[in-house]
């Protein structure tokens, strides 16, 4: 009986599969959010979670079309993506993904995690979100699948506490809560400051301050908005960061 030789493609696939199986599993943080704009609280939270959970890197995932904010003004996805790239560029442990922005239709966390599991099959995912959002997490689409796909890390500012009854039914091994003082910063407040002509220096990264001014984001309807940064603002835009109103606007299926 004559044995057929394996094709080059099948041999390469087998080699890659074997190599993937042998490689150590990565630990990847996933910080999803509208990032409108991204601020220093996001960066501090991501850095702190990376340290505490020994993550290889943190992937920032700007929301594409936040379904819960239809009918509200949200900055263009490319503006939010570029602000995120600018904000994270100096940290080699940070990276930015277009997985949500490039996916058509409304953005749901479960879709984000499904796609990332395909992109990073040999990785353990740690989804970083505002602890406030966790109170409503069981209303998110396919929430049980989300906890199968990733460990959730809820970050909150001092004085904010979750109610135990809101977290019943969630596997304790798949959920961690940590307190981070810098989370008192919010994208909502940053937008309001820009609209009112107040500075946002040291609340958002310097490059993002300059980008907001250059692109004229968050201008008030009346016109000029004062010293957002090195230039005046003269265009328009608004928000979309999921847990933003309370503390961190990390991705949420329901909140601002």
TrEMBL record:
Q: Where is this region: Disordered?
A: 226-256
- Can you tell me where the transmembrane regions are? none
Q: Which reaction does it catalyse?
A: nicotinate beta-D-ribonucleotide + ATP + H(+) = deamido-NAD(+) + diphosphate
Q: Name one GO molecular function term.
A: ATP binding
Give the domain of life.
Bacteria
Q: What EC number(s) is this enzyme filed under?
A: 2.7.7.18
GO BP field: NAD+ biosynthetic process
Family recorded in the similarity comment: Belongs to the NadD family.
The top of its lineage is: Bacteria, Bacillati, Actinomycetota, Actinomycetes, Mycobacteriales
Please name the source species: Corynebacterium amycolatum
Query: Which pathway does this chain act in?
Result: Cofactor biosynthesis; NAD(+) biosynthesis; deamido-NAD(+) from nicotinate D-ribonucleotide: step 1/1
Q: What is this protein called?
A: Probable nicotinate-nucleotide adenylyltransferase
NCBIfam families assigned: cyt_tran_rel, nicotinate (nicotinamide) nucleotide adenylyltransferase, PRK00071.1-3
- Cytidyltransferase-like domain mapped to chain residues: 30-193
- Keywords on this record? ATP-binding, NAD, Nucleotide-binding, Nucleotidyltransferase, Pyridine nucleotide biosynthesis, Transferase
What is the role of the protein in this entry? Catalyzes the reversible adenylation of nicotinate mononucleotide (NaMN) to nicotinic acid adenine dinucleotide (NaAD).
Provide the top EC class.
transferase
């Amino acid at each position: 009986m004559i044995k057929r030789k394996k094709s080059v493609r099948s041999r390469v696939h087998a080699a890659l599969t074997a190599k993937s199986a042998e490689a150590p599993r990565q630990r990847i943080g996933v910080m999803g959010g509208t990032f409108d704009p991204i601020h220093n609280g996001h960066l501090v939270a991501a850095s702190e979670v990376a340290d505490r959970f020994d993550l290889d890197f943190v992937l920032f995932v700007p929301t594409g079309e936040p379904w819960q904010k239809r009918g509200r003004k949200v900055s263009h996805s490319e503006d939010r993506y570029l602000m995120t790239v600018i904000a994270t560029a100096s940290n080699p442990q940070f990276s930015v993904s277009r997985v949500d922005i490039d996916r058509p239709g409304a953005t749901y966390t479960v879709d984000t995690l499904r796609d990332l599991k395909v992109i990073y099959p040999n990785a353990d995912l740690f989804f970083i979100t505002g602890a406030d959002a966790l109170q409503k997490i069981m209303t998110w689409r396919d929430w049980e699948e989300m906890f199968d796909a990733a460990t959730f890390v809820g970050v909150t500012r001092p004085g904010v506490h979750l109610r135990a009854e809101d977290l019943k039914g969630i596997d304790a091994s798949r959920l961690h809560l940590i307190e981070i003082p810098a989370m008192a910063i919010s994208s909502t407040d940053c937008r309001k400051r820009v609209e009112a002509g107040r500075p946002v220096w040291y609340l958002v990264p310097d490059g993002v301050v300059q980008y907001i001014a250059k692109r004229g984001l968050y201008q008030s309807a009346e016109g000029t908005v004062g010293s957002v940064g090195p230039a005046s603002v003269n265009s328009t835009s608004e928000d979309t960061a999921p847990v933003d109103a309370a503390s961190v606007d990390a991705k949420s299926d329901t909140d601002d």
